């Protein structure tokens, strides 16, 4: 689907996207690139990162891939540094890396719980922490948009409660809290805007393939207000809005992009 945004809304911007090699992260990489940004993709799997970079370059997008695990502070520091060295600056950080699997609380080991917290919550904080020195260009009192931008990919699971997702729900609740705290403190101190996006069920993603068998995916369309799964494109357009000047007064929000699904119940 064609983008409603002008092709130059992110012209000259440099973006680093964790988990940017597949699924929603890759769509954000692609759309940011198509709208003028240079893109650095961070991922754990070399092959996936290389394939994603090749696809972006084939469209004429300036892109690099850097292998790394957001759970390791030294990886986070190195990837941020390499991005800066290659492109000369860093304007936007998108935290898209996430771990997920379905398991009942009874069968989930504390280490399994910790693993997802480590990737989603601690990993998001670590990336923000390491990227800060490049993102803080605005300085005290400059207000939102004077500095860089952070986007944290969240979920809606923890707004209520979700079966077999105790670990991810806890992790994404922490991500939303990180979004608000950094929006307050880094917005005030450095003019950095920090926002989140909470996608609903998005078709054609590794997350959906793993978490929702096809028969469940059909169920969403039975009681979701907009009667369908979302597309990766929907999330990328929300990301473009928040990362561009269109969103210059938005700070500390997590935008729900789920067609209204989380607040709906089956009709009775
Ligand atoms: C129960 C599991 C498990 C499973 C791992 N563990 N998979 N427990 N069921 N399916 C437990 C292990 O037993 C272990 O605990 C601990 O977790 C660490 O496992 P490892 O395999 O050593 O971890 P690691 O290799 O680091 O892999 C972490 C991972 C990751 C989280 C499993 O590989 C992963 O899932 N990657 C997929 C990424 C992904 O799907 N991304 C899309 C996310 S979609 P013990 O106690 O045995 O040591 C998304 C959407 C959310 O986030 C919103 C949905 C609507």
Task: Give a written overview of the molecule.
- This protein has 268 residues and is α/β, with parallel strands linked by helices.
- It has helices spanning 23-34, 46-58, 73-87, 110-135, 166-190, 206-211, 214-223, 232-243; strands at 14-18, 38-43, 63-67, 92-95, 149-153, 193-199, 254-257.
- Strands 3-2-1-4-5-6-7 form a 7-stranded parallel beta sheet, sandwiched between helices.
- 48% of the residues are buried.
- The model has no long low-confidence stretch (mean pLDDT 93).
- It binds hexanoyl-coenzyme A.
- The site of hexanoyl-coenzyme A has 20 residues, from helix 4 and helix 6.
Summarize the SSE layout with pairings:
Layout lengths: L13 E5 L4 H12 L3 E6 L2 H13 L4 E5 L5 H15 L4 E4 L14 H26 L13 E5 L12 H25 L2 E7 L6 H6 L2 H10 L8 H12 L10 E4 L11
Parallel strand pairs: 1-2, 1-4, 2-3, 4-5, 5-6, 6-7
